Amino acid sequence: MSGPLVVLVGPMGVGKSTVGLLLAERLGTGYRDTDDDIVAEQGRSIAEIFVDEGEDAFRAIEKQAVARALTEHTGVLSLGGGAVLDADTRALLAGQRVLYLSMDVEEAVRRTGLGVARPLLAVNPRKQWRELMDARRPLYEGVATAVVATDGRTAEEVARVALDALELKDA
């Protein structure tokens, strides 16, 4: 299998970056986040891209960033929450070791407050989060090699369960 050692997918605020860094440390490998790649390449925040150019333009940028990272990176890779919306991206994830980090809406509220920094959740965030998850959950599950619920767990606990679920060993 070429590409990343593990790819993390899941909704915004689930802890992909935090858990990804922990997994990379425990596995003795590098960590990369496609959202960080996009911000660095574009020189502006994801929220600014959404406002300035719209979601379609952002998704096109994201698709390229994910394809590049899947080719270049061999460590732990985190994808943005909506990356799985693209069929080509889902096809690229086939054959990869993909971990879906899940959480319910109450956990999302607790962690993120479902605040204004989330452009897709600006109005009625709980309802919009539920609708996003209704649409995305089957996509996350469809690309996942393993699923780890993060509700009520620390990042360290999630990382430990993830290593077991993926049958990976600490370095």
Fold and architecture overview:
This protein has 171 residues and is of the alpha/beta class. The protein contains eight helices and five strands. The chain has helices spanning 16-27, 34-42, 46-53, 55-72, 87-93, 105-112, 125-143, 155-165, and strands spanning 6-9, 31-33, 76-78, 98-102, 146-149. A five-stranded parallel sheet has the order 2-3-1-4-5, with helices on both faces. Helix 3 packs across helix 4 (55-72) and helix 4 (55-72) packs parallel to helix 5. It is globular and about 45 Å long.
Radius of gyration from CA coordinates? 15 Å
Q: What is the chain-wise order of helices and strands? A: EHEHHHEHEHHEH
Fraction in beta strands: 5-15%
Percent range of helical residues = 40-55%
Within the largest sheet, what's the order of strands?
2-3-1-4-5
Q: TL;DR?
A:
The protein has eight helices and five strands; from the N terminus they run βαβαααβαβααβα. It is α/β, with parallel strands linked by helices and 171 residues long. The chain is globular and about 45 Å long.
SSE blueprint:
Layout: E1 6-9, H1 16-27, E2 31-33, H2 34-42, H3 46-53, H4 55-72, E3 76-78, H5 87-93, E4 98-102, H6 105-112, H7 125-143, E5 146-149, H8 155-165
Parallel strand pairs: 1-3, 1-4, 2-3, 4-5
Helix pairs in contact: 1-8, 2-4, 3-4, 4-5
